[in-house]
Amino acid sequence: MDHFERQLAQMMRDTEAPAPFEPKHRERLWAGVRVRSRRRAAQRAVGSVLAIVGLSVGLFLLPGRTTPVEPSHPGPQPATSPSPSASPATPDASLSAPPSSDTSTAPAAPDGNATIMPPPSTSAPPSGTATARN
Amino acid sequence: MEQSRARAFDEFVAARWSALLHLARLLVGGDRHRAEDLLQESLVKLWFVWPKVADEAPEPYVRKVMMRAAARSGQRRWWGERPVEQLPEAAVVGDVSADVVERSRLEAALAQLSPKQRVAVVLRYYQDLPEGQVAEALGCPVGTARSHAARGVAQLRQLLGHVNEPVQ
């Protein structure tokens, strides 16, 4: 620290003027404290409201919240498997079934008995026709 | 509880007002109104942390808040200088003592510096802070703080040339 710097430091200290803390300073200071208190309270209130709104929106938008939890329906049956309700198990039922294109063309048995046809399905082999020939 | 807290705070402010205001005036370059604004803002901040710092070091806390605010003052619009047609404080004839003249010259010279240079000079030479703490207050590396102080002192050396002469 050279001479000028020492002088500068001394000058800064020596130039301090006495300044009493007057009532107007006190009033202004407490007014500033009140203003800042109100601002902090308002910020806290706004923050709380925003937090509640955000939480509510988040809960509302949670995935699956509105979907009722119920047992799921049984899965669809395979199209090729015979359904007990749809396909008749007894030969009598086949007699009353409407004739399909295969059965209508099949010739009747020589003995007059009706030919037992398998239930109509797409993958069933046309064994009924072969049987009719026998 | 609140009453005793307010009373202790009031006593502290009343006791340290003069010294803190002088520091504020040096930090802002002599403008009394700006200095009071700076000090009041810092004291309001102190009030909200008073329970934490009252028993330890309330004055260093205020000083640190003032230093940081003063260092940032160049970036704040509301502290920008506004030209006016008439000077708000006219010099009173006959009230020109040697101390007042000296203080006015010092403050006018400090006002010529940039905010960071001014804060660096005040902290370094008035507060006797080491370079590390000056850098911390300015929020910059130590080398930058040293540079601010050196440039500020160099400019003050030109503006206040007469104090460079040895005192007889």
Automatic annotation (TrEMBL), chain B:
<dbReference type="InterPro" id="IPR014325">
    <property type="entry name" value="RNA_pol_sigma-E_actinobac"/>
</dbReference>
<feature type="domain" description="RNA polymerase sigma factor 70 region 4 type 2">
    <location>
        <begin position="105"/>
        <end position="156"/>
    </location>
</feature>
<dbReference type="InterPro" id="IPR013324">
    <property type="entry name" value="RNA_pol_sigma_r3/r4-like"/>
</dbReference>
<dbReference type="GO" id="GO:0016987">
    <property type="term" value="F:sigma factor activity"/>
</dbReference>
<dbReference type="InterPro" id="IPR014284">
    <property type="entry name" value="RNA_pol_sigma-70_dom"/>
</dbReference>
<dbReference type="GO" id="GO:0006352">
    <property type="term" value="P:DNA-templated transcription initiation"/>
</dbReference>
<dbReference type="GO" id="GO:0003677">
    <property type="term" value="F:DNA binding"/>
</dbReference>
<keyword id="KW-0804">Transcription</keyword>
<comment type="similarity">
    <text>Belongs to the sigma-70 factor family. ECF subfamily.</text>
</comment>
<dbReference type="InterPro" id="IPR036388">
    <property type="entry name" value="WH-like_DNA-bd_sf"/>
</dbReference>
<keyword id="KW-0731">Sigma factor</keyword>
<dbReference type="InterPro" id="IPR013325">
    <property type="entry name" value="RNA_pol_sigma_r2"/>
</dbReference>
<dbReference type="Pfam" id="PF08281">
    <property type="entry name" value="Sigma70_r4_2"/>
</dbReference>
<keyword id="KW-0805">Transcription regulation</keyword>
<protein>
    <submittedName>
        <fullName>SigE family RNA polymerase sigma factor</fullName>
    </submittedName>
</protein>
<keyword id="KW-0238">DNA-binding</keyword>
<dbReference type="InterPro" id="IPR013249">
    <property type="entry name" value="RNA_pol_sigma70_r4_t2"/>
</dbReference>
<dbReference type="InterPro" id="IPR039425">
    <property type="entry name" value="RNA_pol_sigma-70-like"/>
</dbReference>
